[in-house]
Amino acid sequence: MSTIRANVLKMQPYSPGKPIADVQRELGLTDVVKLASNENPLGPSPKAIAAVTEAARQMHIYPDGAAVNLKNALAEHFGIGIENLMVGNGSDELIHLLGLVFLDSPEDEIVVGNPSFVRYDAAAELAPSRLVRVPLTPDYRHDLPAMARAVSDKTKLVFIANPNNPTGTIVTKRELDEFLDSIPSHVVTVLDEAYFEFAAHVSDYPNSLDYVKAGRNVIGLRTFSKTYGLAGIRLGYGFAPQWVVNAIDRAREPFNTNSLAQVAAIAALNDEDHIRATVAINETGLKRISSALEKAGFTPCESYANFVFAECHRPAKPIFEALLREGVIIRGGDAFGCPTCVRVSVGTPEEVSKFEQAMERISTGVSV
Predict the structure, then answer these.
(1) What is the DSSP secondary structure assignment for residue 125, as one 8-state letter?
(2) Could you give the angle at the alpha carbon of 199 between the alpha carbons of 180 and 201, nearest 5°?
(3) How does strand 307-311 pair with strand 299-300?
(4) CB neighbours of 206 closer than 8 A, spacing ≥ 6?
(5) Separation of alpha carbons 229 and 47, rounded Å
(6) Are residues 215 and 241 in contact, defined by beta-carbon separation less than 8 angstroms?
(7) Following DSSP, what letter does each residue of 189-235 receive, concatenated?
(8) Do 328 and 354 meet the contact criterion of CB atoms below 8 Å apart?
(9) Under DSSP, is residue 32 helix (H, G, I), strand (E, B) or coil?
């Protein structure tokens, strides 16, 4: 029997939010809502649904491996050259590919915030290369000065999720500019903007597109999974210097984005009504969830994503389990190395109401 690489066996499989069907079966419940996976409560754009319905007739044909129509649509929408665009099976795949094309030695380093998106860790561990975790600030924001100090001559990549997952916090343009000016020119900074549309209204929120257009050593990653509501068909995209896009094209699979995802993304890209409705329902949901958490004595972060992260000031597992018994699935902080925290995704108004009512019922029943 062949031997599996030791670094792979050290990794933990990704653990998604608990499925509704599991909670229904295990607890005998019928009315269960899931506020754990940062999904769009409005679903996909109707234009995307229509495009997929039409394209389904051609499922027997291989997709366009170069995704030309999609890249042209993205180039026109964002005003950037097609040579600066890359697409993937979710932005997760692009993170994986960046690890493949940049890391070639156990001495190479990736610098990340902690906690942040777990797939950055996997990019380093699969190489295997050295993962340098820098704790967030006390208010759960990326500590960019500390991350800059952690950069060495061995650092290849720095990942900054902005907004950060799981905390929903952001770094400002001034902070990011100072960080980029302070690190060596060989280091590539990856701005993961999966939740970009929820934060775009903030005046001092930085935009990766601007840095790529300016020729900075920056890569921007975005996704159609969140605001566009296409999580189920997996499509991410990125802005990058041409030499990075060229490397990704060499390393990726021949048909890494499927035909249904490509047409859905093109249709959804310009559905501004759907985007506005998503951002609006999210803004209201964030306020309601934060208020319910505060009433329970928790301290929520100011979120610029589609979820609320909160410090519970006590072990969070009993809170997670009590909410499960109420038919509400959230994300416990253990998954992020934060055992006294929870993360709650925004749902429909009715789903948020169920969460509010559940929090009221358990707030006096969970032991401190």
Answers:
(1) H
(2) 105
(3) antiparallel
(4) 162, 171, 172, 173, 176, 177, 191
(5) 12
(6) yes
(7) EEEE-TTHHHHTT-TT---HHHHHHTT-SEEEEEESSSTT--GGG--
(8) yes
(9) coil
Inter-residue contact 297 to 313 (CB < 8 Å): yes
pLDDT band at residue 368 using 50, 70 and 90 as cut-offs? very low
Entry pTM? 0.95
Burial class, 25, CB count within 10 angstroms (exposed 0-12 / middle 13-18 / buried 19+): exposed
**3-class SS of residue 82:** helix
- 341: phi > 0 → left, psi -120 to 50 → alpha, else beta; which? beta
DSSP 293-320: HHHTT-EE---SSSEEEEE-SS-SHHHH
DSSP, res 95: H
- Amino acid at position 148, single letter: A
Q: Tell how far CA 148 is from the center of its chain.
A: 22
What's the 3-state SS for 243-292? HHHHHHHHHCCCCCCCHHHHHHHHHHHCCHHHHHHHHHHHHHHHHHHHHH
Tens of pLDDT, residue by residue over 22-63, are: 888 888 888 999 999 999 999 999 999 999 999 999 999 999
